[in-house]
Amino acid sequence: MSPVLSARGLTKRYGKQVALDGIDFEIPAGRIVGLIGPNGSGKTTTLKAALGLIHFDGELSVLGLDPRTQRDQLMQDVCFIADVAILPHWLRVQDAIDFVEGVHPRFDRKKAERYIAHTKLRPAMKVKQMSKGMIVQLHLALVMAIDARLLVLDEPTLGLDIIYRKQFYQNLLEDYFDEEKTIVITTHQVEEVEHILTDLLFIRDGKIALSATMDEIGERYVEVMVPNEKVAAARALQPIDQRTVFGKSVMLFDTQRAGGLSRIQLEALGEVRNPSVADLFVATMKGSYA
Amino acid sequence: MKTMNWLIRRELWEHKGAFFWAPVAVAGALLVMIGGGFLYAIFTTGQFQFQVGGDQVLAIDGLPPPMRARAAAIMASSYLAFATPLFLVLPVVVFFYCLAALYDDRRDRSILFWKSLPMSDEQTVLSKVAVALVVAPLATMAVGMASSLILLVLALAAGASKGVNLIAPVLADLNLYLSPLYLLSFLPLYIIWALPTVGWLLLVSSWARSKVFLWAVGIPLVTLALMAWFDFLIGRFAGLEIGFKWFGEQVVARILGGLVPGIWFSEAELQLLKQQPDGFDGGVVLGVSYGTLASPAVWVAALAGCAMIYGAMRLRRWRDEG
Hints:
The complex is a heterodimer.
Chain A: E1 5-14, E2 17-27, E3 32-36, H1 43-50, E4 57-62, H2 71-74, E5 78-81, H3 93-103, H4 109-117, H5 132-144, E6 150-154, H6 162-176, E7 182-186, H7 190-193, E8 199-204, E9 207-213, H8 214-220, E10 221-226, H9 231-235, E11 241-245, E12 248-254, H10 263-267, E13 271-273, H11 277-284
Chain B: H1 2-14, H2 16-43, E1 48-52, E2 55-60, H3 65-78, H4 84-101, H5 104-107, H6 111-114, H7 121-161, H8 167-172, H9 174-207, H10 212-237, H11 244-257, H12 282-291, H13 296-318
Antiparallel strand pairs in B: 1-2
Helix pairs in contact in B: 1-7, 2-4, 2-7, 3-9, 4-7, 4-9, 7-9, 7-13, 9-11, 9-12, 9-13, 10-11
């Protein structure tokens, strides 16, 4: 099956500043990809390029289409949330549902109404009367009811409380996602999405810093709780990151780097476990703001 | 087509106040002021009476037949003139609508929501053109016709209560029924004349990062002022002209004034309109108005308007909203 998204030498310059520096990646169908990077790393630029919102250089194909020239066709099968709380202030809940139903052939009205029934939104309510969280809830309800082949979410849960955020990601996984669909998410709240992701793309300074499935990452990166007496020995093995928790050293090792030890060898140093995406991210991005 | 329908509906949700309530409010004011006058006349004085120093010198108990006929003809053919104030409100409303049309959703970033739905920028821009050039004028015409008819009825009733009963001759006058059709027939002409203005305003609306009004009005006026100044200098020292007057009439007037109904009379052969003692002759007025289409400049300007609308579509497609 051809990939849903494939980029080759994708480049975007704003004047002299390079936002995307010739990146390559492929995203197959049926994946939930976390596109993760520090502020200004090029995440949003990548998504805007894929959604046909900006010009770019290089090759980028989305569902087999060029987003620059075939955007109108592409939008039949793609949906996105590019920013939160951006619904116009004059829009009513019922009008929003009618409108999306009217223009989108793949919108399921019942589904949207079901999501909305779980919130405090009322049909006659206007966006200007809503709190920021309620606007996001309405937007998510509309988008989740669209049966799109590719869903792009750029910081979709900003401004929502933890209860709704958890609920949203659960709905996304249980109710929305299937093997035909692909979801790309960017977020700073990595710990909330890591359990639903199938793939990770780390991006830094306009380049892909890491591209792997979650399974590969589990095999490749190992976190070891090193007892004090072995710290010096462990440090000699060049961990990519090290921190101290309750007086114990926690070191992160990349088993695939040159001269790296295997998981079994590392077990000799102490208790071994899989690192969290957040820790891996911090280790990978070290020095980003330096 | 279905998408277009929804896009136009969206515009009406957003601008219900401007396109519906504004004309209704103006019509309401007209009814209260003019219609109130008629009602006052019905319920107060008995007859048209003229008094001098407390002595009754003249009472009108009716009109001689020729005057009756003329009064009836004027009423039947000109009653829509009651709605004139509505057609002065229309250009103001549409002017500001066009300026906001492609700017407001960029400012509040809701453009990112609209762009996440399957509709092209061409459709979006065309829906706004249709609202400015067709929906808004039709709404104003409808409100205008309704309020004019109410006022005509009140006027006839007032006349009848004073012994000047024109109801039968007015009802029998063909112009009573033709007037709304004449009014509707102006719509295509209005669209052609308004295209340059709508195109220009939409172009600025989709281009400017802020202060749309200043850009839209400032660019043509400042250019005109600069040209006038150059004209003065060059004319003084080199005896040449760069034609700022031409620029003012052919460019500035067309891109800023095209929304005013009747702007075409500025180029019409007005002597043909004189001598209409029996009220409006709708046919003649229409003929004179459409006669302005014989000038190629009108068509060039309309085409330029279309080109600017196309430019607005391209800008909307590629403008990076950050």
